[in-house]
Specification:
Length: 738
């Protein structure tokens, strides 16, 4: 079949070449779009459907040019000036000059018409699914500034936002403008986070708590595993205790509060920059609904307006299905918990003696790797589910569909990424019981406990591994996979075409494909990173620094992909980043809540503070020369009598050990929660309320202090309105006063 079709187009595909008018050239940039069909899959039925589709376009005023090679059929599509004249007429406001049609607008209009229903009921999407066409894409052009921008050596150069807008449209330009501003704002956050982290080195040897732990050679910790494990000296945890103080110190609270205000200032100043950019592009008063209705009328003059619809039954069904999916995400987190419990039991077997001392670290590291793999797997499922939920909701326009899809997909992704972190921060080690009466999974395996130096170490390791993998491995895959795929396709297509125009079409065809999710995926990647940077930043103050380095690479990586490795994105018009702004604001609120809870319940900040001013020597009126945290370690460890083990005969270690210590606040005689536990719980809750109210009030003050729209932009808009009114007044007939 392939050999027969290589001689010429299949039946029904013999389109006449477009007659070129005087003065017109056959330069590749004149074509608004190129359609590609696979000759090996061209049957008479498909050829007829392809012919009908192209004839329908010609009747609408489009010009079509057919070209072929040994494997593919190419169809250049160009709209005549009448299509764009109607566009200018529909969007022209009374008294305003006729708007010009930019090349990006041409491509957008042509793409809109191609993807709308034809007279026979087929859309381009249907034809692609049925193999009538393989793909459609706009052609890349020679743009010197963008090619210079899409180079690794330009990593620290300013982005040509106007050139990006003129080539890729406003949607892509606003993404890069936002990403550039986000990266710039990460610099002060990264600097403060690094200072907070490095300040912990001042406590590395000077911390009173670390000194007491390192000198506690006679304090034995209760076995953490099942019976048969040996006692461990508290001094063995000396190194980890010092490391913990690098990110769990008094500066943690200040940094968390700083990041809450930083997130608000970042968003408010971005709104100002967005307003300036949009005014510069003359899109400040642009109406997206009006634009979409104009495109509908261009495609079909008989188009009837689709009214807004809402169904409580459909909304309830979507809500129930979304909650079920969220429950699945939580269930995946529980499976990770089960894995960690089983892994802890496995790592403690005699077959792995080298892990005897570092079981918790090995469990946390392997659990983080498994969580990362789960995230990659669930991302595909979440996207599919979010699409189906949007289909069920039946949005009126593509913009509404995109907004609803964004909310659903991000919600599912949030639980997929942060469920295990929530478990570690707020559940891990808190439902384990106590030595001699531990809670077990299925009655067999002991639940996982926090690291000997505290749960903050577990949260820090989990954050570092997941964020590190996402920022390094994901970026490498994001660049290498399309680069290698392109090289492989170019290597396979070694035949040269004598026609330079067909050569250009094939060169564009061989580039990596794009879809409506290409830019969406870039936004989603940055939103998840923003969540890691802010939500649990109290446990990982280096997150902004890691995000800063990653974004410097991400900007250039995205530029190289869009300009050199991928087909040209269909330009889209926009005056803001859409629903993503609401997502950023929601993340800012969640960050305040999560960081307050981390400081109160995961960090040792509150117990240290309470001991300092209530139970410690300073609270008892000791001399100023005494460190206020003297005796804190002994105070924070509860006592367990070894005779109360259910099978003490099997306990490893010295038979002379009568008691051991464990991290908790329980009485030594009945192992119930002590008075200190309940007092600490009350202080923790009070701190959460106080911290969140102060942080949220600070956010509100910052939002009020930094107006969303600069006064220069407001004055410019007012001046334009005033000038229009003056023009109308001067052009209207004068009336005499009564």
């Amino acid at each position: 079949m392939q050999g027969e079709e290589s001689a010429g187009p299949a039946e029904g595909d013999s389109l006449p070449l477009m007659d070129m008018g005087p003065g017109e050239t056959e330069a590749s940039e004149q074509w608004d779009c190129v359609l590609v069909a696979d000759r090996s899959q061209s049957s008479p039925g498909r050829a007829r459907r392809r012919r009908r589709f192209l004839e329908r376009l010609e009747r609408k005023g489009f010009q079509v040019k057919a070209m072929e090679d040994q494997e593919k059929l190419f169809f250049g599509i160009r709209a005549n000036s009448g299509v764009f004249s109607l566009y200018r007429t529909l969007l022209r406001e009374p008294g305003e000059p006729t708007p010009t049609v930019q090349p990006t607008t041409r491509i957008r209009i042509v793409n809109f018409v191609l993807n709308k229903e034809t007279a026979e009921g087929d859309t381009l999407e249907d034809l692609v699914k049925d193999g009538v066409f393989e793909i459609s894409f706009p052609l890349h052009e020679e743009e010197r500034r963008l090619k210079e921008w899409a180079q690794w050596r330009s990593i620290f150069r300013r982005q040509p936002i106007d050139s990006i807008r003129d080539y890729f449209g406003e949607k892509v330009a606003l993404y890069f403008a936002w990403l550039g501003w986000y990266t710039a704002m990460l610099a002060p956050a990264a600097a403060v986070g690094l200072v907070i982290f490095l300040s912990g080195f001042s406590l590395f040897h000077a911390s009173q708590i670390s000194k007491e732990i390192c000198e506690a050679h006679d304090v034995l910790l209760c076995p953490r595993g099942d019976h048969g494990r040996r006692f461990q000296r508290l001094s063995d945890t000396c190194t980890f205790a010092k490391l913990t103080h690098l990110f769990d110190n008094d500066g943690t609270v200040l940094f968390a509060a700083f990041m809450a205000v930083w997130a608000t200032v970042f968003l408010e100043i971005w709104k100002r920059k967005r307003a300036e950019v949009v005014l510069h592009w003359d899109l400040y008063g642009w109406d997206e609904d009006q634009e979409e209705m104009a495109l509908e009328l261009i495609n079909c003059p008989e188009y009837k307006l689709q009214p807004q619809r809402h169904s409580y039954l459909r909304s309830a069904a979507i809500l129930v299905l979304s909650l079920l999916m969220i429950c699945l995400m939580i269930g995946m987190a529980h499976l990770l918990v089960v894995y960690r419990v089983l892994a802890a039991a496995f790592f403690r077997t005699p077959a792995l003696p080298f892990l005897e001392e570092q079981v918790t670290t090995a469990v946390v590291a392997s659990g983080a790797l498994l969580h990362y793999v789960t995230i990659v797997f669930m991302t595909k499922i979440n996207k599919y589910v979010a699409q189906k939920l949007c289909d069920l909701e039946q949005p009126r326009t593509f913009s509404e569909r995109e907004s609803q899809f964004t909310i659903k997909f991000f919600t599912l992704q949030f639980f997929a990424h942060f469920s295990s972190l929530i478990y570690i921060a707020f559940i891990l080690g808190r439902i384990n019981g106590h030595p001699g009466k531990s809670v077990r999974l299925a009655g067999l395996w002991k639940l996982e406990e926090c690291h000997l130096s505290g749960c903050m170490m577990d949260l820090f390791v989990q954050m570092a591994i997941i964020m590190g993998l996402k920022q390094t491995l994901s970026n490498c895959v994001e660049y290498l996979v399309p680069w290698l795929a392109l090289k492989l396709r170019v290597w396979r297509q070694r035949r040269t075409c004598p026609d330079p125009e067909l050569r250009g079409w094939k060169r564009n065809y061989l580039l990596n494909p794009v879809n409506v999710f290409s830019l969406f995926d870039e936004f989603m990647e940055m939103m998840i990173q923003y969540g890691f940077t802010t939500i649990f930043v109290a446990a990982f103050p280096l997150a902004p620094l890691l995000a800063l380095f990653s974004n410097l690479v991400e900007i250039r990586l995205d530029a190289i992909k869009m300009v050199r490795l991928q087909r040209r994105l269909v330009p889209r018009k926009a005056k803001d980043i859409g629903t993503w702004l609401q997502v950023l604001e929601a993340i800012g609120v969640l960050a305040v809540i999560a960081n307050g809870l981390v400081i109160a319940f995961t960090s040792e900040f509150i117990p240290r503070l309470v001991y300092k001013y209530r139970y410690g020597p300073c609270g008892q009126g000791a001399r100023a020369t005494v460190d206020c945290l003297t005796g804190y370690v002994n105070h924070s460890l509860s006592v367990f009598h070894t005779k109360d083990f259910r099978d003490p005969v099997q306990m490893g270690g010295s038979e002379n050990v009568t008691q051991c210590r464990y991290r908790d606040y329980r009485n030594a005689h009945d192992y119930r929660f002590s008075e200190q536990f309940w007092f600490l719980l009350a202080i923790r809750l009070a701190f959460v309320i106080l911290f969140e109210h102060v942080a949220l009030c600070s956010k509100l003050i910052a939002a009020w202090f930094v107006p969303d729209v600069p006064q220069s932009v407001k004055n410019k808009v007012l001046e334009e309105k005033y000038c229009r009114l003056l023009e109308k007044m001067c052009s209207s007939p004068r009336t005499t006063d009564v």
